[in-house]
C-alpha cells in the first residue's frame, strides 16, 4: 500500500495521471458497492441482470434441502405417532389383542429371566425401563412425546440431533413390541429414514440454517442410496414374483384387490385394458431403470427425484397404502439441491436469505475456517458412510439373489433394510364379515344376524370406499390378510369374536358401527366369508348406490359364544372376556 500511494502521489501533477486516478477510484467504488450489495442479501442488488444473477441460489448446496427433508420426516413421524396414540391401547395395550406386556415377559423368559443387554438386543425398547403397572399410560406417553417433538420440527423446520434421536428411539420402542400390528415394511423404512435424518442436524443448535453445521453430501447421498434400494427392491420382487407382472396384467386386478381401496380405486379399476398394460410397463421402468439416473449427474438425478415423487403421488391417489408412499417421497427429495428447491421458500424468508448470504460469502472467498466441532462432524459423516456401506452388503446380495426377501432387516436396529411391495397380486377380493345375533339358537332359521362394520375395510356394499392416507387402520389392514387365510392361522380373529361377545369397549372402538348398540351384547358371533368386486359404473347396481357386489363363499369360523370359547381362551392364556378384573400378565 505504501509503494502504490507513493507512485500515485508522484504522478498526480500530470493530466494523464489524474484521469488514471479517477478510473482507479471509480473501479474501487464499484467493487465496494458490489460487496456491499452481496452482504445485504437478495434484495440489495437492484433490478439489473447482473444483480439478479448474483442473488440467485447456486447449485450444489443442500441447506434448503435439509429443511425440506427434516419437515418431511417430521410429518411422517407425526402421522405414525398419531396412529400409535389412537390404536396402540386396543392392539398392544394391557387389554389389547396382543398385549406388549405379555410379549416382553415372554422375551424376558427366553433370554434367561433378566432385563439386561440380551433382552435389549433381542427387543430394543425403552419400555424395558418403564413401570409396567400401567402399560397403557406408557404407550400413550411415548406417542404423545413423539407427536409433540415431530410437530415442533414440522412447524418450525428446525431440529437437532437430540430431537431426532429421541423420535427414532421412541418409534423403535413401539415397533419392536408391536408384533403383528407393526410387521409392515414401512415401519423399518421409517426407522431407516429417521436414522439418516439424525445426521442432517447439529447436536444442540436449533436453526433452519446452522452456519457451523453445513449439510453433509455424504448424508444426502445416503438418502439417495435409500430411494435407489427401495425402488430396485420393489421392482425386482415383482419381476421375480407373480407372473402377471411379466405379462403386464397385474393392474387389471390391483385396484380392486389391494388391501384398502379408496374412491379413485373404483374408477381406476375400469380403465381400458391397454392403459393397465401401460401402467404395468411404466411401473417396471420407474422402479428398475429410472433409479440409476441418480448416478448420472445433477440433472438426471433431479429427473429421478421428480419421477419418483410423481409416481408416489399417483399411488397415493389410487389407494390407501398407509403412509408408505408419503414416506417414499422423503428420500426422493434428496435428489434436489438448494437451487431446485428455492421456489418452496419465500424470497425474503429467513432460510432462503441466510443461504444466499452463505453462498455469497463463499463466492467472495470469505468462508470461515472449520473449527474443531466441524472437523469432528466430518469424521462422523465419513464413519456414517462407512457404516451404511458395510450394512448394505447383505442388502445388495439379497437384491441380486433369485430368492430375494422383501421387507427384511439383517440387524436389530433396522438401520439398513430390504424393501419390496406387491410381489404377488391377488386376483379375487375376499372379506371376513363379523356378524352377531341376539337369538339363543344360532341354528334357528329365523335368527337375525347383523353385521359389524369396520372403519375402512369393505363391508356394507353401499358404503363408499374410504379415503384415509396417510393415516392407517392397522386392524383393517390385517383383516385383508386374514381373508385369504384361515382363522386357525389368525387366532386373533377369534379373540375379536370373544371381545365382541362381551361388548368390550377395547375392540368396539376399532369399529365403525356396532349393529347391536343399546340392545346388549350378542349371544353368538360368527365370521362369514364373501367374495367382493366393484360394481360397474353406470350399471343398475351402481344406480342403486352399490359400490360393491358380493357373493357368499361360506363360513369363515362357526358361531361361537362366551362359554364355548372358555377353553380356547384358557389354552392361549387369554382372560375370559366376561370375567371382570382379570389382568393379563
UniProtKB/TrEMBL annotation:
<dbReference type="InterPro" id="IPR057434">
    <property type="entry name" value="LMF1/2_N"/>
</dbReference>
<comment type="similarity">
    <text>Belongs to the lipase maturation factor family.</text>
</comment>
<keyword id="KW-0472">Membrane</keyword>
<dbReference type="Pfam" id="PF06762">
    <property type="entry name" value="LMF1"/>
</dbReference>
<keyword id="KW-1133">Transmembrane helix</keyword>
<feature type="transmembrane region" description="Helical">
    <location>
        <begin position="218"/>
        <end position="237"/>
    </location>
</feature>
<dbReference type="GO" id="GO:0051604">
    <property type="term" value="P:protein maturation"/>
</dbReference>
<feature type="transmembrane region" description="Helical">
    <location>
        <begin position="309"/>
        <end position="329"/>
    </location>
</feature>
<keyword id="KW-0256">Endoplasmic reticulum</keyword>
<feature type="domain" description="Lipase maturation factor 1/2 C-terminal">
    <location>
        <begin position="415"/>
        <end position="558"/>
    </location>
</feature>
<protein>
    <recommendedName>
        <fullName>Lipase maturation factor</fullName>
    </recommendedName>
</protein>
<dbReference type="InterPro" id="IPR057433">
    <property type="entry name" value="LMF1/2_C"/>
</dbReference>
<dbReference type="Pfam" id="PF25179">
    <property type="entry name" value="LMF1_C"/>
</dbReference>
<feature type="transmembrane region" description="Helical">
    <location>
        <begin position="190"/>
        <end position="206"/>
    </location>
</feature>
<feature type="transmembrane region" description="Helical">
    <location>
        <begin position="281"/>
        <end position="297"/>
    </location>
</feature>
<dbReference type="GO" id="GO:0005789">
    <property type="term" value="C:endoplasmic reticulum membrane"/>
</dbReference>
<feature type="region of interest" description="Disordered">
    <location>
        <begin position="1"/>
        <end position="52"/>
    </location>
</feature>
<feature type="transmembrane region" description="Helical">
    <location>
        <begin position="63"/>
        <end position="85"/>
    </location>
</feature>
<dbReference type="InterPro" id="IPR009613">
    <property type="entry name" value="LMF"/>
</dbReference>
<feature type="transmembrane region" description="Helical">
    <location>
        <begin position="142"/>
        <end position="170"/>
    </location>
</feature>
<keyword id="KW-0812">Transmembrane</keyword>
<feature type="transmembrane region" description="Helical">
    <location>
        <begin position="379"/>
        <end position="400"/>
    </location>
</feature>
<feature type="domain" description="Lipase maturation factor 1/2 N-terminal">
    <location>
        <begin position="182"/>
        <end position="341"/>
    </location>
</feature>
<comment type="function">
    <text>Involved in the maturation of specific proteins in the endoplasmic reticulum.</text>
</comment>
<feature type="transmembrane region" description="Helical">
    <location>
        <begin position="111"/>
        <end position="130"/>
    </location>
</feature>
Amino acid at each position: 500500500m505504501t509503494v502504490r500511494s507513493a507512485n500515485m502521489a508522484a504522478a498526480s501533477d500530470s493530466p494523464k495521471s489524474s484521469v488514471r486516478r479517477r478510473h482507479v477510484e471509480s473501479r474501487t467504488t464499484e467493487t465496494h458497492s458490489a460487496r456491499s450489495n452481496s452482504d445485504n442479501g437478495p434484495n440489495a442488488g437492484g433490478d439489473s441482470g447482473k444483480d439478479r444473477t448474483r442473488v440467485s441460489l447456486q447449485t450444489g448446496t443442500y441447506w434448503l434441502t435439509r429443511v425440506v427433508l427434516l419437515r418431511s420426516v417430521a410429518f411422517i413421524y407425526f402421522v405414525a405417532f398419531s396412529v400409535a396414540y389412537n390404536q396402540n391401547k386396543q392392539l398392544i395395550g394391557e387389554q389389547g389383542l396382543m398385549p406388549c406386556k405379555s410379549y416382553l415377559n415372554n422375551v424376558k423368559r427366553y433370554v434367561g429371566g433378566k432385563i439386561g443387554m440380551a433382552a435389549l438386543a433381542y427387543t430394543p425398547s425403552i419400555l424395558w425401563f418403564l413401570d409396567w403397572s400401567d402399560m397403557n399410560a406408557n404407550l400413550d406417553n411415548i406417542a404423545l412425546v413423539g407427536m409433540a417433538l415431530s410437530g415442533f420440527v414440522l412447524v418450525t423446520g428446525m431440529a437437532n440431533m437430540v430431537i431426532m434421536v429421541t423420535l427414532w428411539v421412541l418409534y423403535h420402542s413401539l415397533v419392536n413390541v408391536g408384533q403383528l400390528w407393526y410387521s409392515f415394511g414401512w415401519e423399518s423404512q421409517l426407522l431407516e429414514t429417521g436414522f439418516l435424518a439424525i445426521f442432517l442436524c447439529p447436536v444442540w443448535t436449533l436453526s433452519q440454517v446452522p452456519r457451523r453445521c453445513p449439510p453433509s453430501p455424504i448424508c444426502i447421498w445416503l438418502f439417495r442410496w435409500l430411494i435407489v434400494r427401495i425402488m430396485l427392491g420393489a421392482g425386482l420382487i415383482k419381476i421375480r414374483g407373480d407372473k402377471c407382472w411379466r405379462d403386464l396384467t397385474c393392474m387389471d386386478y390391483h385396484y380392486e384387490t389391494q388391501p384398502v381401496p379408496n374412491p379413485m380405486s373404483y374408477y381406476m379399476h375400469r380403465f381400458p385394458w391397454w392403459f393397465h398394460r401401460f401402467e404395468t410397463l411404466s411401473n417396471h421402468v420407474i422402479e428398475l431403470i429410472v433409479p440409476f439416473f441418480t448416478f448420472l449427474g445433477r440433472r438426471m438425478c433431479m429427473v429421478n427425484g421428480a419421477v419418483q415423487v410423481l409416481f408416489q403421488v399417483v399411488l397415493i391417489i389410487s389407494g390407501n397404502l398407509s403412509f408408505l408412499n408419503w414416506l417414499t417421497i422423503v428420500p426422493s427429495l434428496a435428489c434436489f439441491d438448494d437451487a431446485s428447491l428455492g421456489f418452496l421458500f419465500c424470497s425474503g424468508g429467513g432460510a432462503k436469505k441466510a443461504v444466499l448470504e452463505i453462498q455469497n460469502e463463499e463466492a467472495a472467498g470469505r468462508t470461515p475456517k472449520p473449527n474443531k466441532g466441524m472437523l469432528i462432524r466430518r469424521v462422523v459423516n465419513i464413519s456414517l458412510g462407512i457404516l451404511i456401506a458395510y450394512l448394505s452388503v447383505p442388502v445388495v446380495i439379497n437384491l441380486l439373489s433369485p430368492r430375494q426377501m422383501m421387507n427384511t432387516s439383517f440387524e436389530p436396529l433396522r438401520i439398513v433394510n430390504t424393501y419390496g411391495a406387491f410381489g404377488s397380486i391377488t386376483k379375487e377380493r375376499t372379506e371376513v364379515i363379523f356378524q352377531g345375533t341376539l337369538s339363543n339358537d344360532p341354528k334357528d332359521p329365523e335368527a337375525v344376524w347383523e353385521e359389524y362394520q369396520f372403519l375402512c375395510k369393505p363391508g356394507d356394499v353401499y358404503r363408499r370406499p374410504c379415503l384415509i392416507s396417510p393415516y392407517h387402520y392397522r386392524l383393517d389392514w390385517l383383516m385383508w390378510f386374514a381373508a385369504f387365510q384361515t382363522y386357525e392361522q389368525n387366532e386373533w380373529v377369534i379373540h375379536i369374536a370373544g371381545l365382541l361377545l362381551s361388548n368390550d369397549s377395547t375392540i368396539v372402538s376399532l369399529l365403525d358401527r356396532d349393529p347391536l348398540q343399546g340392545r346388549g351384547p350378542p349371544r353368538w358371533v360368527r365370521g362369514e366369508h364373501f367374495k367382493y368386486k366393484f360394481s360397474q359404473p353406470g350399471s343398475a347396481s351402481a344406480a342403486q348406490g352399490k359400490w360393491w357386489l358380493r357373493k357368499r363363499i361360506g363360513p369363515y369360523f362357526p358361531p361361537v359364544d362366551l362359554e364355548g370359547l372358555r377353553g380356547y381362551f384358557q389354552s392361549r392364556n387369554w382372560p375370559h372376556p366376561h370375567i371382570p378384573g382379570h389382568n393379563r400378565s
